[in-house]
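Let us practice reading a record.
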Amino acid sequence: MADSQEMLEELKNFDTPSITNVVATYPGNPLCLSLYNPWTENWYTDQSIRCMYPELGRTVGYAVTCVFGLPDPDYDSLSFLDVIDALDASPKPTVLVFQQKFPPELAAKVGLAGGNMTSAMKAVGCVGAISNGPSRDIDEIRPMKFQYMLSGVTAGHGGMAVHAVNVPVSVGGMDVAPGEIVHMDENGACKFPADKLDAVLNNVRALQKEEEERMGDLLNAGSAAEVRAILGGHAYADEEEESQP
């Protein structure tokens, strides 16, 4: 059986919507693992954040998490070096998921992770980062081939501090715990437990084969009757038809 590194690499052959399909999107379908209630649980990102470098394709890794906010005179126990240590200690590759907890009047102005921070993260095996706020140095980071998903970009920042490392965080509508697998591309990001890696990969392989065959048949269909016949044998379409009056 392939090791986890090989499986993570193979997951990059599939887009993030395909991963969501087998993780939780279609409960009741044989290829869906139904790991979460698809609507009530926060297991994929919303439209509040976007992919900065869609040309890089898919990015996959183990989540390392942290929380940033304003400096607190009563708490200075952690620094960015503790984030680097956590990235270094994690299985590789890693994706840093950093929640920004700044006051509302500052939240849209925090150019948090620039070129220096990104270079340090990449040096210890990190391949991408996701945050619920902005960042900066997008042009400087582009040649590094390090993926970012952010709310946007801004040029500067003031004093800031690390408030927690490797705690559960919520970023862009997605709740992430340390050690979970994160898969992201220009469609967004989703997460799933690391112990489901083999099952997710096996099911998404089967799903891709099934959908390629179906789409080939649809592209060759010559009438609505043929389209109906093709879709009629597919559980997803069956569910949609059953939901209609």
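A brief commentary: Residues 197-220 form the longest helix (24 residues).
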